[in-house]
Amino acid sequence: MNTIQKKIWMLAMVVLFIMAAIWFALTYYNQKTQTQYNEILQRYLHLNEAKTASQEMIVNLNSYLNEPSEDNKKRLKETEDKLRQAKIEAAGLRNEENDFALSNYMNLIDSLIETTDRSVLFQEDNETEASASEFSEATRISKYISDMTLTLIDTELKTYDRFYRSIIEKSAEIKKLGIWLMLLITFLLLIITYGFSLSITKPVHQLTQAANELSKGRFDRQIEVKSNDEIAFLAKTFDRMRININGLISEIQEKAQLERELQESKLLLQESQLRSLQSQINPHFLFNTLNMLSKKAYLEGNEETSDLLVSVAGLLRYNLRRLDKPVTLADEIVVIQQYMDIQKARFTERLAFYMDIDEGCLDSKIPGLTLQPIIENAVIHAIEPKEDGGAIWLRIMDEEESVVIEIEDDGLGMEAEKVQQILNEQPVQQEGHSTGIGFSNVVKRLRLFYESRDVINIESTIGIGTKVLLNIPKNKVGVRHG
């Protein structure tokens, strides 16, 4: 991971490297120029030392001739050694331009030394005139050496004139190069600094935008920061926090939805129980009375009346049971048969009821009092309005993953608006002599029980009839009823 601290260090190293490279280049060039200057200056100094030594030698020779003491002779000897050393150093200045002149210059130095030595010898031999003549010759040679020194220096100046001019031109070019190099480095540093600052500020800007989205309650948008530093790590941690908060919100919403559905279920059950209780008038008294009437009718030979009373008692007992407990399809079929026995006694030949049941499905669980209200709705809307009566079909089929229940009639059918009203669980005005539980109540309880809105559907055509389709999932019972 490239940390921000590492990026800062990298930028500082790049700047330091560029500055160091410039400093080394300029220092190398200055040192080279200075060395060349020193070499040229040393040539002038060597020539000047030879001239100075020759003049000093004439002065010391004159002092010795005037006063031939050991000290003066010693100083003359030292001056002669100094001139010899200057000659050796001047010999190193030879080149193509001054070869001839420098050879003459060396010869003049040798002549000066030899003339000086002869003057000293003549002086020691008390040959004063000869010594003075040699002194005059030495003085003349010294003057030649001075003139020759100026000539050689002038030759040196001419020789190195082009060098001086090239150095001046190079200095001007280097000055221009320095300005362009400074502008180029400034431009590069601006680009590098911009990229470096962008690599830090862009992830921070993305993170700020993500924080604003979260502050607005948008927890479904992923936080993604494309960098490889501490800000990317912070963004990943921030995104995990977003996912956790989003999960907690979803969990709270699901719990609220379950509590709302549970509350609706309780209200439906209370409504069903209330309607059932409204039809109760001392249930034990009614059961005992109906049983007594059934036995009396049987003893008087009226078996049909006895069976009807048994069916009424069974239907009443089934309606008074707890509706929050699931029942089997077999229980529902029994109570439907009792209900239809009562209705057949009422409508006689006007009512035709057909059942086609796959007995393998009878153990399936469904909410209590589911089929009887639907059958009852079919009786009210299919049989009662028609003088010739009608027919009702009950089919139970075993599908691969579900049990399909069809309740079909050939009645007058329902308007599409009423069908949507029932499927949307809206209150529907009760018609006819209902036992109490409405169609919308059945729809709500089925959807809550199986936690699916596709568990029921209604197909109805005006003048043709109505078909109610229940798609009961196998091995699936609502969580609150399992």
Automatic annotation (TrEMBL):
<dbReference type="InterPro" id="IPR003660">
    <property type="entry name" value="HAMP_dom"/>
</dbReference>
<dbReference type="InterPro" id="IPR010559">
    <property type="entry name" value="Sig_transdc_His_kin_internal"/>
</dbReference>
<dbReference type="InterPro" id="IPR036890">
    <property type="entry name" value="HATPase_C_sf"/>
</dbReference>
<keyword id="KW-0812">Transmembrane</keyword>
<dbReference type="Pfam" id="PF02518">
    <property type="entry name" value="HATPase_c"/>
</dbReference>
<feature type="domain" description="HAMP">
    <location>
        <begin position="198"/>
        <end position="250"/>
    </location>
</feature>
<keyword id="KW-0472">Membrane</keyword>
<feature type="domain" description="Histidine kinase">
    <location>
        <begin position="371"/>
        <end position="476"/>
    </location>
</feature>
<dbReference type="InterPro" id="IPR050640">
    <property type="entry name" value="Bact_2-comp_sensor_kinase"/>
</dbReference>
<dbReference type="Pfam" id="PF06580">
    <property type="entry name" value="His_kinase"/>
</dbReference>
<dbReference type="Pfam" id="PF00672">
    <property type="entry name" value="HAMP"/>
</dbReference>
<keyword id="KW-1133">Transmembrane helix</keyword>
<dbReference type="InterPro" id="IPR005467">
    <property type="entry name" value="His_kinase_dom"/>
</dbReference>
<keyword id="KW-0597">Phosphoprotein</keyword>
<feature type="coiled-coil region">
    <location>
        <begin position="248"/>
        <end position="275"/>
    </location>
</feature>
<keyword id="KW-0547">Nucleotide-binding</keyword>
<dbReference type="GO" id="GO:0005524">
    <property type="term" value="F:ATP binding"/>
</dbReference>
<keyword id="KW-0808">Transferase</keyword>
<dbReference type="GO" id="GO:0000155">
    <property type="term" value="F:phosphorelay sensor kinase activity"/>
</dbReference>
<feature type="transmembrane region" description="Helical">
    <location>
        <begin position="177"/>
        <end position="196"/>
    </location>
</feature>
<keyword id="KW-1003">Cell membrane</keyword>
<keyword id="KW-0067">ATP-binding</keyword>
<feature type="transmembrane region" description="Helical">
    <location>
        <begin position="6"/>
        <end position="29"/>
    </location>
</feature>
<keyword id="KW-0902">Two-component regulatory system</keyword>
<keyword id="KW-0418">Kinase</keyword>
<protein>
    <recommendedName>
        <fullName>histidine kinase</fullName>
        <ecNumber>2.7.13.3</ecNumber>
    </recommendedName>
</protein>
<keyword id="KW-0175">Coiled coil</keyword>
<dbReference type="GO" id="GO:0005886">
    <property type="term" value="C:plasma membrane"/>
</dbReference>
<feature type="coiled-coil region">
    <location>
        <begin position="69"/>
        <end position="96"/>
    </location>
</feature>
<dbReference type="InterPro" id="IPR003594">
    <property type="entry name" value="HATPase_dom"/>
</dbReference>
